[in-house]
Amino acid sequence: EKNGFDHFMLKEIYEQPSAITDTYRGRLLVDDGIIRMAGVDDNLERFLNAKRIVIVACGTSWHAGLVAEYVFEDLARIPVEVEYASEFRYRNPIINSDDVVIAISQSGETADTMAAIKLAKEKGAFVFGVCNVVGSSISRETNAGAYTHAGPEIGVASTKAFTTQITVLTLIALKLAKAKGSISNSDFHMHLRELETIPQKVEESLKSNEHIQKVAFKYKDARNCLYLGRGFNFPVALEGALKLKEISYIHAEGYPAAEMKHGPIALIDEEMPVVVIATRKGHYEKVVSNIQEIKSRQGKIIGIVTEGDTSVRELADYVIEVPDTIEALTPLITTIPLQLLSYHIAVMLGKNVDQPRNLAKSVTVE
Ligand code: M6R
């Protein structure tokens, strides 16, 4: 049941440290310096010979696919395309027999994703599934796969499925990077060690809950909200916006921070909250200047920042701190405050958090 939490969504947000641990247990062998995943090991040649990887999914799972695009390309140097399953299936896609298709689905029952898999198989591609529900239709239809071990996800808004999908995909990317030699030994070991600390860092991030509740109270009456991020955290911005719209019915959009000036900046005024993922990594300075652009137009800024940050704090109306980690792993941490923010806003607005209007947990019709 809900284990003392008011909603399944909150319970599932808090389960993430253990869900991530369960997902890498037996796979991430830090002391031995190896990643063991039967579904990948048994098909290693297919992965290594792939000229590209095509990821198909819907909704939050599609966002996990976008994070994976950054991780695979950065670490394993394999070109990745991420497709909405619903678009892929109807546009006569070019699929080669040496393509690897990765289908991501929490439920394993999503109709569009299933149809995309069937099409890819017909064209001779090797299809690998990343599902949460054991024995689901998609897990049976795919040629091989790796389960996320998130446990049952009841809330319609996907939370722990997302972070465990990213965990599995990161493990695969690291494994392929090692096999291809596209990562140095020391970098590989550093990533393994760091991945093992993620559950603890998610736990740390959850400690901001009360502070996030205050931020939620401040912005709960907004009509619109923007989410910005760059690089690995651009998909996290999309996911943050989806979480807010599906459970609070506030209109929200996610953008790569630098796209602001190509249109969305016109929306900014003193009524517009802008959530900016601004961890002290890769594009930090550029994100800070994006924040300045918002500030000079009176936008309200909520910064998701690395512990101890000072530059964003000076500019932002609120900051929410998260622990530091290596760049490729930041999505696993920066997602947490965004989930909590949308949760609290929806609760304050009196919405049905676990079963939002018009939505079903698995979308088995097209
Ligand atoms: O079960 P799946 O992962 O295939 O579901 C895909 C989407 O329907 C799902 O992620 C949906 O977007 C969620 N409600 C998002 O929170």
TrEMBL record:
<dbReference type="GO" id="GO:0006002">
    <property type="term" value="P:fructose 6-phosphate metabolic process"/>
</dbReference>
<dbReference type="GO" id="GO:0097367">
    <property type="term" value="F:carbohydrate derivative binding"/>
</dbReference>
<comment type="function">
    <text>Catalyzes the first step in hexosamine metabolism, converting fructose-6P into glucosamine-6P using glutamine as a nitrogen source.</text>
</comment>
<dbReference type="GO" id="GO:0006047">
    <property type="term" value="P:UDP-N-acetylglucosamine metabolic process"/>
</dbReference>
<feature type="domain" description="SIS">
    <location>
        <begin position="215"/>
        <end position="356"/>
    </location>
</feature>
<feature type="active site" description="For Fru-6P isomerization activity">
    <location>
        <position position="361"/>
    </location>
</feature>
<comment type="subunit">
    <text>Homodimer.</text>
</comment>
<keyword id="KW-0315">Glutamine amidotransferase</keyword>
<protein>
    <recommendedName>
        <fullName>Glutamine--fructose-6-phosphate aminotransferase [isomerizing]</fullName>
        <ecNumber>2.6.1.16</ecNumber>
    </recommendedName>
</protein>
<dbReference type="GO" id="GO:0005975">
    <property type="term" value="P:carbohydrate metabolic process"/>
</dbReference>
<dbReference type="GO" id="GO:0046349">
    <property type="term" value="P:amino sugar biosynthetic process"/>
</dbReference>
<dbReference type="GO" id="GO:0005829">
    <property type="term" value="C:cytosol"/>
</dbReference>
<keyword id="KW-0032">Aminotransferase</keyword>
<dbReference type="GO" id="GO:0004360">
    <property type="term" value="F:glutamine-fructose-6-phosphate transaminase (isomerizing) activity"/>
</dbReference>
<keyword id="KW-0808">Transferase</keyword>
<dbReference type="GO" id="GO:0006487">
    <property type="term" value="P:protein N-linked glycosylation"/>
</dbReference>
<keyword id="KW-0963">Cytoplasm</keyword>
<feature type="domain" description="SIS">
    <location>
        <begin position="43"/>
        <end position="182"/>
    </location>
</feature>
<keyword id="KW-0677">Repeat</keyword>
